[in-house]
Amino acid sequence: MPTAGRAASPVPVRRFRFRFPIGDRTARRRVPKGQLEAEELSLPLQNNPPYNAGAFRFELVFSPHYPLVPPRVTLLTSIHHPGVGPDGTVCQPITSPESWEPATHTTHVLQDLLLLLDNPSTERVLRPELARELSERPEAFLHQAEEHTRRHAEPRPDTPGP
């Protein structure tokens, strides 16, 4: 049933919200009730500062034309990172329309996202001022990123032992 101000889509857009701690061993996929069963997705993540002190929410949106059109990844938690825009846009070439391959698995998109977030660099940049800070004053960048993580990230969930 369409809501006021929204046009009904002939094919529903699938939206997934994820919450994962960078540096944790697991990432849990949360799926809105009534769309699909909730599943758990495990990915090998590292435990690198400055983002390992918190959990970050992100949204993975699939177009009705998926897999011909890439999914869109948006970080919902504020992060001090050169590869993530202030609006949560992620610099992820694997999901750009020019580079997208329909055979790309969602797991590859998530692994690429986690690699980007866990290893800030000056190569995949949406915020040049942060890339410049990372390049010219790496200690100051790491300190700012840790402080930003403490202020804005969610507490890390308890994870099951090995």
From TrEMBL:
Domain of life: Eukaryota
Organism: Bambusicola thoracicus
Region (Disordered): 136-162
Protein name: UBC core domain-containing protein
SMART domains for this protein: UBCc
SUPFAM superfamilies recorded: UBC-like (SSF54495)
InterPro entries, sorted: Ub_conjugating_enzyme, UBC, UBQ-conjugating_enzyme/RWD
Any Pfam family the entry gives: UQ_con
Chain ranges of the UBC core domain: 1-154
